Amino acid sequence: MEGRRQDGGRGTLVGRSREQAALREVAERARGGQGGLVLVSGEAGIGKTRLVDSFLLAEGLPVLRGPSRDTRLAAPFSPIAAVLRAGLAASPGALDHLPLRGYLAPLLPELGPAPSQDGNSPAALHEAIRGALRALMESGPTALVLEDLQWADHATLDLLPALVGGLADRPVLVVGTFRSEELPRAHPLRRARQELRRAGVLEELHLGPLDPAETAELARARLGAPLTPALAGILHARSEGVPLFVEELAAALQGNGGLAPRADGRLDLAPGAAVEVPLTLREAIGLGLDRFPPGVRAAAELAAVLGPAFDADLLLDLADEQAFDALTGGGWLVEEGGGAAFRHALVRDAIYAGIPWSRRRTLHRQVAARLEEVGAPPGVTAEHWLAGREPGRAREALLASAEASCRLHAYRDAAGAVGRALDLWPPGAEEARRLEVLDQLGRCAQACGLLAEAGAAWREAAGARRAAGDTA
User: Fold this and answer.
1) Is residue 98 part of a domain?
2) What does the record list as coiled-coil region(s) (predicted)?
3) Helices 122-136 & 154-166 angle (0-180, nearest 10)
């Protein structure tokens, strides 16, 4: 099972004693066979993953990890599939005698053929998932980590309360993280949290910014020396106590020759140097990238187009291997789950925002074409075609994504993909097919309880057929 991820030498945990104590309390209950869920929230860069990873490493709990990075673009239940694969890698025979094992095949094709469509149903799939997770927990206390739930697909979040409830009598600590600023009012995680609260199986922790003393302590850990009060004050004011920004600011100043030790060993801004303290995270990251040759920076931009986490082979197919090694050696990219990832999603976002739009479009087209060649999930490919300004190809990928979601009974995700495909439909083109897709939208929306949306789609299709003289 997976332990703490490699983070290029960063990730020191400072403060958070109250939150660690709360996690210890829930972990003790889980060890006693009373499973539950802890949701850790906070703004991007505030240290949610850092807290969870540091705590689990100290506790020595085996970890099954299900990241939700860009799973809104991938197949439904992707975080759950990642957890199941991690569990099977650690215990290959754990599901051999699971009664509903065959129903997991649409989610994990490596398990063999799926049952006939007549025997397949949402209830059977959901029960198979719950049974598989319970079976994987038989070996002893385990932590199940679901990251970045603000990005998770509807199917995963709709199933979350039932999954946690099904593990309530198992020695399992379920930890979820999400960005509080990316949770609009209608987000499905809000509904899931309400159900979990009513069931009494939810603990919630919200992380705030570091105080000035904690900011100084984190910068000291990053730089290897204490700071003068003046420099510590500047770092706290600029970073507003966000740990990732503290580290990036410190690294930018150090790499730019902006720091100098005083006689007492404390670090201060270099005297007499034309030093500018970066105002934003993007500016701090840009200063670090400026030290790389053009080829390495180009590889970093390509990696940013691929996303916060990606298949390393895909980047190596499209970029120079030496540039990839420079990014991993410099701590910009880290190993994660057999692939590669930026050390933080905000680092990726900052690099991506600095790519000129014309180059960004070209890179997205390049990536989309390669993803189609290797058979990537069509939802991922669709987003790259959209960013590459190829609406026709994006539309086809979205329709393929909807079909894949329907096979997993993820009808809300399917309806979303079909609706986006219809938004891209050129006026007057393939009208008969457009009406069939409208009918499909109606069926998907009806299947997931969106009755108003289903009625609207069917009325639009019927009205268009009547206008065309079809009275059947």
Assistant:
1) yes
2) none
3) 50
Structure tokens at 30: 């889980």
**Bridge partner residues of 309 (DSSP):** 341
161-214 confidence digits (pLDDT tens): 988 988 888 899 999 999 988 888 889 999 999 999 998 889 999 999 999 999
* Neighbouring C-beta atoms of residue 425, cutoff 10 Å: 17
pLDDT digit string, tens, across residues 342-376: 988 888 888 998 899 999 999 999 999 999 999 98
Does residue 306 lie within any of the structural domains?
no
Rounded CA-CA distance 36/173 in Å is 6
Are 142 and 1 within 8 A, CB to CB? Answer: yes
Domain count, the chain: 3
CATH number of the domain within which 95 lies: 3.40.50.300
Range of the domain at 234: 212-289
Say if residue 165 is in the same domain as residue 225.
no
| pTM given for the model | 0.83
Tokens 């180059």 -> residue: 359
Residue 174, domain member (yes or no):
yes
What is d(CA 160, CA 154) in angstroms, rounded to the nearest whole number? 10
What is the C-alpha radius of gyration for the chain, rounded to an integer number of angstroms? 24
d(CA 11, CA 113): 42
CA–CA gap between residue 66 and residue 80 (Å, rounded): 6
